[in-house]
What does this fold into?
Amino acid sequence: MKVIEQEIATLKNSVSEMWSLVHQQIYNAGEAMLTGDKELAYKVINRERRVNAFELKIDSDCEDIIALYAPVAIDLRFVLAMYKINTNLERLGDFAESIARFTCNLPDKEPIDPQLIKETHVEEMLEELLSMISLAQEAFDKESSEIASRIFIKDNLIDEINHSSTAIIAHYIEKHPESALAGLYMAGIIRKMERFGDHCTNIAEELIFYLEAKVMKHMDKTEKEANH
It folds into this structure.
């Protein structure tokens, strides 16, 4: 095996490990938010440092491969894609931490009403986001642009939940003014989760770029779906 092949294999393993860590962070942050488990939320906050350390290592590895081995063609596309995917994974880790902090900051006397969780479909939103991350990792492991393209369709549901949430939360606060703080927190969480979806689609775009040399950036969703 050539040295550059060894370096690329090592890079792929590092990205895969970070992916698994970020997936667990988002799962734990979601569980903490839904159940009000502050101990689990603190665990997410403390593990964010591991995500940041992974990001720095992967960035450095990508830069070293380009500087030392001058990769070309698919090897170059792989390294460039990993560099950008790494950034998106770190952002997902940041969002997980922010949701965990929301759970820690919400006063014990104002827990989230299960009815609000149900009406906003936030649990369904979380499940879809975890599914998108899993799909992206499967596409990465199997080197499948067809699997990656499914993420674009899933993001539509995330957008629909986000768009409908404002009116739902406003109506809830109107009926339950004593729970206004929890309602506002929920609105912030849903906006962050919508951004989760955007970062997942960014990752899918980078995987397709790596595998097919096709640039999906700036295409609208209809164009992306038509291209796959």
Q: What stands out?
A: The chain has one domain: 3-226. The first helix runs from residue 3 to 35. The radius of gyration is 19 Å.
